[in-house]
Amino acid sequence: MSTRLRALGAVVATVLLTGGCAAGTHPGAAAVIGDTEISIGDVDKTSRAVGAALGEAYPDQAALNGMVSNELAAQVGKQKAIPVTDAEIADAAKNAVAPSPEAYQKLQADPASRAFLDNLAATLIVTIKLAGGKGIHDTDGQQKAQEGLQALNAASKDIKVTVAPRFGQWSDGRLDTAISGSLSKESDQTEAKRKAAEAAQQQGQG
């Protein structure tokens, strides 16, 4: 059960959602999703909090990726009237999204990292329910999550996403960090973690 649930979390961790794209934002904004703005300060705060909880650097670009995806899912969930309860969020955050029980406790200790974790959990739940699933404990939950990502992709394609150039460019449903220069490129450690998550996802499908 644990391996399958972690693989569900990998769906959220490695597959981002699709939105529109534009050239940039006004000063102080990291991204704007529809009418919702994510400030550079919020991205920095989230990056530091998550990094401290995980005990390693967590790039601003990774934080922004997740924050944009979470906001897209929240907007689609609201449009589709998809219910997500606090109990469902707590369950998914602990059992499907957090990489370990220890990491879960540390992520819960800071308001910024806790909000990020909870929003990732809500995104996972919305994704599963979009495909007709009930939640993370569905026997075919991972398949529903994959199907839900396609539905979420279609539902969010008309939501305009603009990203500050310093973070990269929102392209093909993800933040392309290589566009903004060497400081924004994926580190070897981040790449290794991403590939490990993808491997866990594939294992869960097998």
TrEMBL record:
Renumbered residue ranges of the record's region Disordered: 171-206
Keyword Zinc recorded: no
PROSITE patterns reported for this sequence: PROKAR_LIPOPROTEIN
Signal peptide region: 1-23
Amino acid composition bias (Basic and acidic residues), ranges on this chain: 185-197
Keyword list, A-Z: Signal
Name of this protein: Lipoprotein
